[in-house]
Structure formats: C-alpha cells, structure tokens
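Journal club side-thread
Mid-discussion, someone asked how the predicted structure for our own chain would compare to the paper's figures. Pasting it here so we can look after the session.
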Amino acid sequence: MHAYLLSAVLACASSACAQNFVDVKPSPQQVAWQDMEMGAIIHFGTNTFLNREWGDGTAPASVFNPKHVDTDQWLEAAQSAGIRYVVLVAKHHDGFALYPSAQTDYSVKSSPWLGGKGDLLRMVSDSARTHGLRFGVYLSPWDRHDPRYKDPAAYDKYYLAMLEELASHYGELTEFWLDGAGSAGRIYDFDTIIENLRTYQPNALVFADVGLFKYADIRWVGTESGNVDFENWNVVDRAGYLRWRPVEADTPLHTDHWFWHPSDEASLKSVDELVKEYDQTAGRGAQLMLGLAPDNTGSLPAADVARLKEFGERIHQIYGNNLALHGKAATDTSAAFDGNANTYWQAPMPSAGNVTPPILTVEFEQPTTFDRAVTMERLNDGQHITAYRIEVKERGEWHEVAHAQAVGHKKIDIFPTVTATGLRLTLLDTNGPAQIREFQVYNGGIPY
C-alpha cells in the first residue's frame, strides 16, 4: 500500500474522517417502512384479565383464558383505520409469553386456553399476512417473573433463545421492538442479541430509544402523546455516531391505557383526537403507532372497532381529494403534482449564476378553498430540505401561510382556511439535491 493511502486509511480509522448529516442515507427497508406511515402495537396477556397495566410476574398462567380469540377481527379493524403493519407484544414485562416457548413454562402452554395448545403469535402473524399487513414482535427485555433475570449472563442467554424462536418460526418480521421500561441500571448484551436477530431476520428494523441501543434502525419519539413537537430530522447523533433513525410515535387508542380494562369506554379517544395525532405524527414525518387492546373474551371491543373505522373514514374524507390535481403547474414540475408518490421532481440546485430558490407553484382557474398542504420529500438519497415556506395567492397577491425547516417523509402544514387562486412551495435552503415526491392541497376543515 502506498504511504499516502495508508495514512488516509489510518486517519479515517482515528475518526479524522467525521460523519456528516448530509451523507447519511436510509436503507431500502427504512424507506419502505416509512411509506407505511401507520402501525398498531397489540397488548394482550395476563394483565387483560387482572385490570392491570403492568403485571408483576406473580399471576398464574391459568388467568389467561379468553373464550374466543378473533385475530382476524383485530386486524380488519386496524386495516379500516389505514394501519399497514402490526407489532404483537409477545412477552410483556410480567414475563408471560403468548406463544408456546420451549424456554419457559410461563406461557400460553400452561394456560387453559385451547387446552394449552394455543399460539397467539402464530394466529396474529397468519392473520396479518392474510390481510396484507406487515408483522413484527415486541419482546420485553425486562422480566418480572423469570428467576434468571437476577443473573444477567443467564438471562441474556434465555432472552436470546426466545428471540431465536420468534425470529425462526413466524415468517418475515418487519419490526422488532426493544422497550427500555424497567431497565434502569441494567446492561443487556444488545449487540449479541441483534446480531443473532440479523442471522434469521436480516431485513427486520430494530426499534429502541436512542439511549437504550446505539445501533437501532428506528427511534422512540420520547413521549406517548401522539405528537412530534420538534423539527423532525431523520438522522440522529448519539455522541458523534450518526445514524438514519426515523421516528415512531406510539400512543394508545385509549388514553393512558395499553391493556384492556373493564368499563373503560370513557378513555377511548375521539375521532378528532386521533386525527390530530395523525397530523402531528405522520404529518410531521414520523410513524403513528396506535396501541390496540383486545378484551378478556379475545376480541377488540365493539366501540374500539367502530372508532378505528370512523378514524379511517375521516382521514380519507380529509385527504381523499387532492385539489392540486385540478390545478395547473409547469410541465417540468408535473411529477410533484401527479398524485403518484413513486414519481418526483428534482429541484435545481442554486448556482453562481442563479441563486433563485427552487419554487413549486400550482394555480387554479377559479378561486379554490383549502386549509392545508402536504409535502413529501424523496428520502432515498437523504433528507435535504432544511428550510421552506408556503404561500397562497389571494386577490393577485402572494402571502405566507407556513414557514418551517424539516419536511422529511411527509409534512402536513395546516393554516387558516383561505380561498385562493394559487399555492406555492419555496425551498429556502437545501443541503443537497432535494427531491419532491408530492405537493398536495386539501380542504379538510380543521377539526380541533
């Protein structure tokens, strides 16, 4: 090796070649995952039968005895809301497993349900694929039942063996959830765990809090509020280590309740609340992950089923008529207005001879009423829009209705209702060649 080349290699190895946010790009799996936009996480277990949120691991397996588990009903209800992937909590913090693990007797095989022959994981994974939904699993690192938890090395071996079962026998996993609850002061061998997961599921995306696992693919939003309250950049910096980690915002369908509770109808979120959560998560470049909870019979409550359907219908009502399709745009920008997220407009980069920022404009023959714009950035080559504004044309004059930084996968900007003859998006600043998949216009009527 030439001396200068060896020197360059050694310099990069010693961190002289630092990462740059601009250069970090998503994997194809992350791009496909972000396109799904909405998922569901399903909590069902011994807590369902004990009116609890967090079990302590002392409940006998015999308490788990639903009379009629209907996983098709669960997923049909989820699908009616527009949900496109589901994650099943295979083992919560109480340690009870919803599949017949060979690693423990504390599972469905020791319950009276189906004579100990049931496998919830199999039922949900089969139903998901029947209904065209992607499937993933949650396996809590914390375990309040298994005595091996007191011995980190023994428990890591136990957890790894369970993960191998899940990763080997239930088909392709889109997402693997790591939850840090109860893990304060505990160090898990996550490197080995995820390396093993990759052996069986090389395309699965790992969800974890940024502080829990450094090499995860998806990050937690930080709250369970159903809100992204920051400029959403997909690249996160953990002590100088940069990684593409899009946000997943988890929030339950029932306020503060992940598991089913009797006489709990008052906590069911309204359609308006759910639409607001959609606008503030999926509409801010994140995934909305709704928590669903079957009841102690094994079905989703009728009120929950109805609410999910109503939510899906409202989203379609608001975002089902893209007014930009009825307007006129310059021919060279038409890919941003065609309603097809698989096409895109390549924004020209400013040059020494042309410092005018890129602009997308759609004009209407007649004054048109609307209250929101949807912008989608193509992220395959990275996130490049760093500042933008949206203006409307009223009575022949342009004025600003939105101004922000990040666009990302999807940005929904809602503003006071206007009746205008035009709408335009100006890319005020970019850190690379920005690509716009869609610029859409809607009149949804602000419901909150």
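Post-session note: The helical segments are 3-13, 28-36, 71-80, 120-130, 152-169, 190-200, 271-281, 302-319.
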